[in-house]
Amino acid sequence: MAKIFISHSSRDDTFVRDLRVALADHGLDGWSDLPELMFGDTIWPELQKAIEAASAFVIVVSAHALQSNWVVKELRHALALREQRGTFPIVVFSLNATTLGVWEEFFDEEPDYICVSSDARGIEAAINALLVEVGVLEFKTQASLLSCDSSVLP
């Protein structure tokens, strides 16, 4: 089962739990720090190992994530890993149209965002675009990708 590392703020745990369920429904293991890290684990080395073992990296960008030192640290590690490997999908999941802002400077070019709403159907509406980005589904049409405009949000 392919592992997808999910970088997020702990304030978005409810959304990430739902995302993990959706990924599991498609045969993917969504790794986040929720159940995997035990109290007392040395956190950073464990996170590095998990990112390195993943086949793709998803960053859930929210107002909370933009305030998280852990999220930016994880993103930097994923970007360094992509540079080392030559390829490593990094998917920017824009929660309620939140953008990376100045964090976009970490990328060589402006990243593509997958816009997702935090409402009950948000993940369902965005899951196919995520599966395309991580290489599980073949890109079919432009309609399968979601841009971050007001038409995709409630």
Structure explained in plain terms:
The chain has helices at 13-25, 33-36, 43-53, 69-85, 122-133; strands spanning 2-7, 28-31, 56-61, 90-95, 113-116. With 154 residues, it is α/β, with parallel strands linked by helices. 37% of the residues lie in helices and 17% in strands. The longest helix is centred in the middle third of the chain and has 17 residues, at 69-85. β3 (56-61), α4 and β4 (90-95) form a beta-alpha-beta unit. A five-stranded parallel beta sheet has the order 2-1-3-4-5, sandwiched between helices. It has a single domain, classed as Toll/interleukin-1 receptor homology (TIR) domain (Rossmann fold). It has five helices and five strands. The chain is globular, with a radius of gyration of 14 Å.
Draw up the topology in text.
Layout: E1 2-7, H1 13-25, E2 28-31, H2 33-36, H3 43-53, E3 56-61, H4 69-85, E4 90-95, E5 113-116, H5 122-133
Parallel strand pairs: 1-2, 1-3, 3-4, 4-5
